[in-house]
From TrEMBL:
Pfam families: Arm-DNA-bind_3 (PF13356), Phage_int_M (PF22022), Phage_integrase (PF00589). Residues 201-376 form the Tyr recombinase domain. Keywords: DNA integration, DNA recombination, DNA-binding. InterPro entries: DNA_brk_join_enz, Integrase-like_cat_sf, Integrase_catalytic, Integrase_DNA-bd_sf, Integrase_DNA_bind_dom, Integrase_recombinase_N, Phage_int_M, Phage_Integrase. Coiled coil: none annotated. The keyword Signal does not apply. One of its GO terms (molecular function) is DNA binding. It comes from Sneathiella litorea. The lineage of its organism: Bacteria, Pseudomonadati, Pseudomonadota, Alphaproteobacteria, Sneathiellales. Belongs to the 'phage' integrase family. The keyword Cell division does not apply. This is DUF4102 domain-containing protein. GO terms for biological process: DNA integration; DNA recombination.
Amino acid sequence: MRAKNRLTTAFLKSAPVGKHCDGAGLWLVKREDGGAQWVLRVTVHGRRREMGLGGYPALSLAEARKQAERWRNVAVTGSDPVKVRKAEERAERRENISLDVLTADAFEARKAELKGDGTAGRWLSPLTLHVLPKLGRMPVTDLDQRDIRDTLAPIWHVKADTARKAMNRLSIVLRHAAALGLDVDLQATDKAKALLGKSRHVPKNIPAMAWADVPGFYASLEEPTLTHLALRLVILTGLRSTPLRTLRLDQIEGNIWTVPAEAMKGRKDATEAFRVPLSREAQRIIDLARPHARGGFLFPNTRGGVISDMTLSRHMERRGLEARPHGFRTSLRTWLAEATDTPHEVAETMLAHVVDGGVVRAYRRTDFIEQRRALAERWADHVTGGAGQVVKLAGAV
């Protein structure tokens, strides 16, 4: 056995940068930034393994020697200390199998699939708001359909979409728990749906303005305020308000606005940004908004962020209008259907909808930018007072 206990507490307090051996594979690694880390080197089946034990001085010399002795003994039996420690950590985590813990674990495993890694909180919010406050501490193995029914019953008919999402997320969490080897009822959510019955909620489409009425409303947005300018750009581009409200100046180059893929709803699997052709009128509105820009954002608010969606909606509400900003996407889509001969895939791309399956999109590598540019100009002509006449698209496919 190699000599042990070479280091002293006094030496450690002023140890220079470098590696310092205590013996029998235990080392203190002193970094240039002043920090230090205990490292143990052992040999298992002829292969050297290195494992960190903790930082110094949080882990004292005596405690580091104690841990080193334990893991050396594990190595002597032929087991890999690194793998043994990981197994112990997994077992320790599994001791707490509450719905709270399993939900967090399932979310962590799926973050990469979610837009912006789920930072907006929309994946978790149906559970954190309506399920976890009541069931979060319950062991996931005890969860049954009655628990789920009683928890979601208050919103099943009045907040049907939220209840549906909560049920979907619960099903994912249960499948995740089953994959970890826990004995859960994978049919609990389906049974809960049967107990709750069919939702009486009737979904309502977001109120939209008839496309023939859009020019009159557009003309009323005559003030150079952020609200008026943002609403004008919502109308002209046909995009959802989120990418527009978070529009950054560096996303605009000439007559093209490039929206990052992660900012586009329904395009979380996209690897490319979405290009928006800007009509001459849209470019004029952007130029009018530039003096308001702050922090790189074209539509900032006074608190350092950007204007809210409610700011735009309340403006229309105060005007006594039933329609809402999102409804202008419907106005544009209806105009495309009724006043143009635009092919379906081009019209859907105008609204940044993903059309066709992945195989078709893999071969059809176009975003119809030139056709959409012509349509954007025609739409701008209409909303600024044109007749909205039938549009013929040269070369449309």
